[in-house]
Amino acid sequence: MSDTTLRQPQREAPSMFGPLVLIAIGLYFLLYNMGILPSFNWWAIARFWPLILVFAGANILVRQIRQPFGSLLSLIVGLVAIGTFGYLVFFTAPVAPNWQFFNFGSAEFKTDHIAFPMNDVSKATVSITANVPGLNLHALSDSQQLIEGDVSYFDELVFDTNRAGSEVKIDLESREQQPVWFFNPNSWRDLGSLDRWDVGLNGRIPTALVLKLNANASDLDLRQLTLTQLQVQANASRVNLLLPNGSYMGDLKTNAGTMELTLPAAGQQDLLIGMSAGNMVVHVPADRAVQFTVDRAVGSFSVENGRLTLISQNDNNEVWESANFNTATDPLRVRLNISAGNVRVYSD
């Protein structure tokens, strides 16, 4: 005689989505009848009706998960749906309730031409933070300006110039006064107008350059600049960077992005490159004396031709050199720290 175990069919998690929506609608009409809430923007529901399908589909999916997690996730989906439509129907209406905590506001789009004259300037420090789709940075051609360009932004542009004797410090950055303006559909119509910055610097003035690039695509042609120091921090960005000749220190950091880097053909530079996830391609000019000291954790480092030779290797540490590195007058030293990502080196 054998024992037979009867298995009960698995039941779907009960939906919390429908009851929550009904409760929210009932509370609205109750508060509306009491004169506490204004009438909402019916046009927002008509415009964003596909979100109903999105939330309904998400609720069906999470209900397939074993209890009690399915019911909990259904509750979360319902709350997110109520919050989303609550914002759309109230805070995009012509007359919104004056609740300061939820006052997201909308951002104002502007375009400006910036410039600062070169008069008697002997040294400059320029800091640019680009929170825009992209940055075109280059040397000015036969200009009497230290910096000049066209920029577009929302809300506020910081263009600070401080002069002490013959030295000038310039800060350029866009800031949003309403940090969550993006969630207001009234602001979306201007997103397409937000353009790449086009900024030029004077190539005759020794300059310490600091660049912060946030989620954009930037083309940085610095070959005609006179640099004393270079700092670049790129976050989730695509960067094409061409470095100038001369003697300077460089600190380049890229995080979750891609960078195509062309090294200088002459001069004495010391570059520190940090990479945390992403891909990098490095171009070494022909006959350039160079040494790569590589420290990698999870990432990879590869040389695509035979001009660089592996000199030493220890665990994840490698040293690569060109044949003329030890005899060169002005060699280039590159220290490369790879947390995660891929770096390929091409020698022209």
Fold topology:
Elements: H1 17-33, H2 42-47, H3 50-62, H4 69-91, E1 109-117, E2 123-130, E3 134-139, E4 145-154, E5 156-164, E6 167-175, H5 185-188, E7 197-201, E8 207-214, E9 217-221, E10 227-235, E11 238-242, E12 248-262, E13 269-284, E14 290-296, E15 300-303, E16 308-314, E17 317-322, E18 332-347
Parallel strand pairs: 2-6, 2-8, 3-7, 3-9, 8-10, 9-11, 10-12, 11-12, 12-13, 13-18, 14-18, 15-18
Antiparallel strand pairs: 1-4, 4-7, 5-6, 14-17, 16-17
Kindly, what is the distance between the CA atoms of the first and last residues, rounded to a whole number of angstroms?
82 Å
Largest sheet: 18 strands, mixed
Proportion of residues in extended strands: 35-45%
Low-pLDDT regions: 93-104, 178-183, 185-193
Taken from the alpha-carbon principal axes, the silhouette is flat
Report the structural category.
alpha/beta
What fraction, in percent, of the residue positions are helical?
Answer: 10-25%
DSSP helical segment count: 5
